[in-house]
Design goal:
The chain is α+β, with helices and mostly antiparallel strands. The protein has a domain at 11-229. It has helices at 52-55, 64-73, 114-117, 127-136, 145-160, 167-172, 220-223, 252-261, 270-277, 282-297, 301-309, and strands spanning 20-21, 86-89, 108-112, 174-175, 188-189, 210-215, 224-225, 228-229. The chain has a four-stranded mixed sheet. Strands 4-5 form a two-stranded antiparallel ribbon.
């Protein structure tokens, strides 16, 4: 199951008719005023291990009407997934993205709106994305949007090259430096071998845009192995710290994929690659990016033309 498709063919039917809004009640009463001062909102105890820079942000999606408008405006589900696999729901007045399940009765995780609006993330996550979250030991909202952008660009790059994306190969190009107290986990490109340039030097205006993604019974198999979540739903105290992911920790298949990716230039334009994910004309845009590679990075023309023209089912 892929968490995004090459062209967003399903956008017209992946809105509120496929993604419902949950009827679960928030853990605290929501307020009816947009003007409520942050100083009036109490911080929930028990999360002192999370940096205050995370805990001071409360979501603007505190009302059913706001989350309904979002579900109507943006694609949430992958075109091949079951309708109503998930529901989007508002958050409580005192909820932070770093909070656990608290008093909610349903199974859910938090996500930021920017992942859907800017980075073309779709649900349910594919095996590669689940693997990265599980290895890094982070919840979806705990991974910094720049890291999500790198993940999306890597997946798409492997897709157009006909390669199976591997968490180990992806993480080979990065390192992590978790902080205490805990905050969003960033990925740092490895010097000399980093494949992708950062998406943005500073991701802004996302910290108050989180909502709850509720796992419905029909979609449970996408997110659970039996009773065990396939990835952390809630923030963890101990995200993975690693300085390098060497070849000795990879399978033979992973090493073959890495050898092919090593033939590409370094610091490929993540932002441009991610933009193609939502393009109605991905082949045209891929050829345009090939031209960029050729003239700027001196990549072999015939190889990338072959890749682009080998695409099936895209304009």
């Amino acid at each position: 199951m892929s968490s995004s498709s090459l062209s967003d063919k399903s956008a017209s039917r992946i809105h509120s008719d496929r993604v419902g809004t949950s009827s679960a009640q928030p853990s605290s009463n929501s307020t009816s005023s947009d003007e409520e001062s942050l100083s009036d909102i109490p911080l929930r105890s028990g999360y002192e291990w999370v940096d205050s820079i995370v805990r001071e942000y409360f979501s603007k999606y505190k009302w059913s009407s706001s989350i309904r408008r979002f579900a109507e405006a943006y694609a949430i589900l992958d075109e091949d997934s079951l309708d109503e696999a998930v529901s989007l729901d508002r958050v409580g007045r005192v909820d932070n993205a770093c909070h656990g399940r608290e008093g909610y009765s349903d199974e859910f995780f938090y996500m930021y709106a920017v992942l859907f609006t800017n980075l073309h993330v779709r649900l349910p996550f594919d095996e590669f994305t689940i693997g990265v979250l599980r290895i890094l030991n982070v919840a979806p909202s705990q991974l910094h949007p720049n890291a999500w952008a790198a993940l999306q660009a890597f997946r798409f790059l492997c897709q157009i090259l006909g390669l199976k994306p591997s968490p180990a190969v992806f993480l080979h190009h990065y390192s992590t430096r978790p902080k205490e107290p805990v905050r969003w986990l960033s990925l740092f490109g490895q010097p000399r071998i980093g494949l992708l340039a950062p998406y943005s030097s500073s991701f802004k205006n996302y910290k108050n845009t989180f909502f709850r993604v509720v796992v419905n019974p029909v979609g449970r198999s996408y997110f659970f192995d039996g009773d065990t979540p396939k990835f952390p739903f809630y923030w963890t105290r101990n995200p993975l710290h690693y300085d390098e992911w060497p070849r000795t920790m990879m399978s033979a298949e992973d090493c073959e994929v890495l050898n092919l990716l090593d033939s590409l230039p370094r610091r490929l334009p993540t932002k441009r690659i991610v933009a193609i994910l939502s393009s109605p004309r991905p082949r045209r845009d891929m050829l345009g990016m090939c031209e960029f590679f050729i003239h700027t990075l001196c990549v072999n023309l015939s190889y990338f033309v072959f890749v682009c023209t080998s695409f099936d089912g895209v304009a």
